[in-house]
Amino acid sequence: MATSQLEQFNTVSILAGEDLSAAQFRFVKLSSGAVVKAGAGDPVLGVLLNKPASGEVASVQIGGIAPVAVDAAVTVDDKVMSSADGQAATKTGTNNSAGVALATATTAGEVIAVKLESSDGVPGGGVASFEDTAITPGVALALITVNGTDTLTLADGSLPGQEIEILCVSASNSPVGTLTINDVYGSEPTSWVFTTAGQGIKLRWTTTGWKLIGLKQMGSETVANAGTANPLCLLHLVSIADTVDFIQGSGVIAGQRSIWCATANSGTPVGTVSGLFYDEDGSADGIDVNFNAAGDSAALEWVGSRWFAYSLVSATVST
């Protein structure tokens, strides 16, 4: 039998969401906060080490070198994925990789050593790529590709302190990649829209949800009348046609920046960006940034409770 290299924090204990008494050494995934057997090509949490019935505690290895049963013949150095019944199969197409085979198997059911894709000895390790699918919460770095309109999800973490960075590495074809987070800390955003390569967020799992601890802003967007700024975009472009109003939501992390620029004006231009701002005299009573002509701009920084305008070009903050 293959041996496993279990380092500190390489295993987690989670309730089984179904009968897994016949699923030892198979890939499992999270479902509604419990673990179930992974399906074909699914993103996986790790490998089941024991034989729990439904509702019993499952011991899941999430990093290192684990013993995994194979679904069919596998060759050493193959990237492997989960088969329909949670066993290891040679990775095909765009299916999620679960690890690398460290031995050759010739018979279904044989157990071999697999270096898990998320292996680095701590909860949330390794790098994996995702497109239009669920993001495995056990990786440290999730590289996402957005091609057209994509949908991504992030399930709950396993242990408090677990961290994950989600970084957009490619965006094409009018990209709109919407990430929905199952549980978040406090009133933080549950939805993020990725439109440009380089945009990213970093999260830490707490007992009540994912906490935002890092933000990478990149690129620009054109904001329509009554539209709200995307916090992942650094530059927000607006056209002032008669009376229009745009929305600057509260910041999501201290130091976040937001730059607004009017690109055109027509009619009787009156443009405002509504939000919470420090007035130009430092008073905490600003509610609008005012634009009237093309070229007007405001550069803002979130200082914990309001936006501070560190640069205004032909723009004013009003109460």
Q: Explain this structure to me?
A:
This protein has 319 residues and is mainly beta. The protein has 3 domains: 11-116, Beta Barrel (Virus Head Decoration Protein, Chain: A); 127-216, gp9 (Jelly Rolls); 220-318, Jelly Rolls (Sandwich). Helices cover 0% and strands 50% of the residues. It is built from no helices and 24 strands. Strands 11, 12, 13, 14, 15, 16 and 17 form a 7-stranded mixed beta sheet that branches. Strands 18, 19, 20, 21, 22, 23 and 24 form a 7-stranded mixed beta sheet that branches. A 5-stranded antiparallel beta sheet has the order 1-5-4-2-3, with no helix packed on it. A hairpin with a 2-residue loop joins strand 16 and strand 17 (209-216). The termini are far apart. The model is unreliable at 1-9 and 119-124 (pLDDT under 50).
Shape: elongated
DSSP, total strands: 24
CATH superfamily of the largest domain: Head decoration protein D
Overall residue-averaged pLDDT value:
90
Indicate the proportion of strand residues: over 45%
Rg from alpha-carbon coordinates = 24 Å
The number of helical segments is 0
Under the CATH scheme, which architecture of the largest domain would be assigned?
Answer: Beta Barrel
Question: Major sheet: size, sense and barrel closure?
Answer: 7 strands, mixed
